[in-house]
Amino acid sequence: MAERNFERKSILDPAVADLLSGMEQRQVESQLPRKERERISRERAKIQARREQRATYDLPPSIRESIRILAEDLRLPASQLVTLALARFITDYSNGLIDLGKFKQPSRSPRYDWNLIFPDSMFPKRKKG
Amino acid sequence: MIVFAFANQKGGVGKTTTAVTLADGLARFKHKTLLVDLDPQGHLALSFGLQKSPGLYRWVCLGEPVDAVRMEIRPNLDLLPGDKQTEKVKRQITLSDFRETILSDLIHETDYDVVLLDLAPSLDVLHLNGLIAADWVVIPTRPDALAVDGVKEILTTMAEISRTGHRYRGYSILPTFFDRTTRETYLQFQDLARTFGERIWPPIPQDTRVRETAAYGKTLWEYAPHSTSIEGYSDGHQRLGGYRQVLGRMLEVINGRT
Q1: CB contact under 8 A, B186 and A13
Q2: CATH topology of domain B2-254
Q3: Euclidean distance between the first and final Cα of chain A, in Å?
Q4: Contacts of residue A24 in chain B, CB cutoff 8 Å?
Q5: Cα Rg of chain A (Å, integer)
Q6: Which of B172, B188, B198 is best to mutate for the A interface (most A CBs within 10 A)?
Q7: For residue B205, what is the DSSP state?
Q8: pLDDT tens digits, A10-54
Q9: Closest residue of B to A44, CA-based?
Q10: What is the ipTM of this complex?
Q11: If you measure CA to CA, which chain A residue comes closest to B185?
Q12: Domain spans of chain B?
C-alpha cells in the first residue's frame, strides 16, 4: 500500500501569507550575488513602472484576434495599436463624431445605467480553423 | 455586545494607538462603541486631544453611572477616560468581594455594541479584570524577541483565566511597527506565523504619521487616512496589512464570521 503523507498545514490569514511569501522571496534574493540582485531589482522596477499603464477590459474575441493579426503583420506591439485606436476614438467622441445613443440599452446592473449593444456586423468575422 | 481587550505586558507596542484607531473605525461603521482606559497614564484622552480625567475611578469607585462619566468624542464613540486615580481603582478592586468580575459586571450594564479596553502594560488586578471582561483579546506586538515574549505571558494568563471557567471567543496577535525590509522582522514574523497560524492578523506597517497623529489629537482616519499604517503595503492591485484590513478582521469577529 502506498505510504500516505499526512502533512499538517498551518492556515494563515491570506494577507499574512502573501506578505510572508514576499518577504521570503526578498530574503532569498539577498543571498544572491550582487549582479544577480541588481538584475532582479531592475526587473522589479520595470514591472512596477508598467503597472500604471496596465488595464483590463473585456473585449469580443474577434476584435482581440484582429488586433493580434494586425500587430503581427505590421511587426508592432499590440498595446501600441490599441493605444492609437483608443486615442482616435476619444478625439472623435470629443468632436461629436461618434453617437453612442444608437447602441444604448438600459442596464439592469446596479453599477451601470446603460449597456452598449453592438450589431454583429460591426465586428470582423473570425477566421475558422 | 462584544468586548475586546488590547493587551501586552510589554509597553510601547502600540496598544493605545491600535485601540484608538480601531474604536474610531468601528464608530464610523455605525457601531455604538465605548473605549475604556485601564492605564493610569491616561493616554487615551490625550490621543483625542482631551485632558486626562478620573472617569474610570468615578465609575468603579464612586458608583457614578456611565452616562455621567463618559465623554462623547465622536459620533457613535464614547470614551471612559483614566488618569493617575486609576491606581485607586486597583486598590478598591483588591478590597472588594467578587473582585475579578467587577469591570465585566459594570460593562454589561451598559448598552454599547462594542467595548474596547486599553490595558496597561502590567499584571495587576485591573489587568486581570480587563482580561476577564473580554470576549476577544487583541495582542499587539512589535516583531522583536522581548515583545513576542509579552505575547506568551498574556496567553499564559488567559489560559489560567480559562481554567476558572471563563470562555474567550478567541484572540488575535497583531504585529505592529512592522518593517518588511529588515531580516529581524522577517524572522520574528515567520516565527509568529508558524506558532500562531491564522491567529496572526495582517501587520501594521511602521509609519511616522502615527506619531504625528497623537501630537495633533486626531485619529489616523482623520489625520492620515491614506497613510501606510491605514492602507498597508501596496502589492500590485492589492494592499497588505494596515488598520483598514485589521478593522475588516474585527468586523468579521463582531459579525460572527470568525
Answers
A1: no
A2: Rossmann fold (3.40.50)
A3: 48
A4: 186, 190
A5: 24
A6: B198
A7: B
A8: 588 888 998 888 888 888 888 888 898 889 889 888 887 887 788
A9: B236
A10: 0.80
A11: A23
A12: 2-254
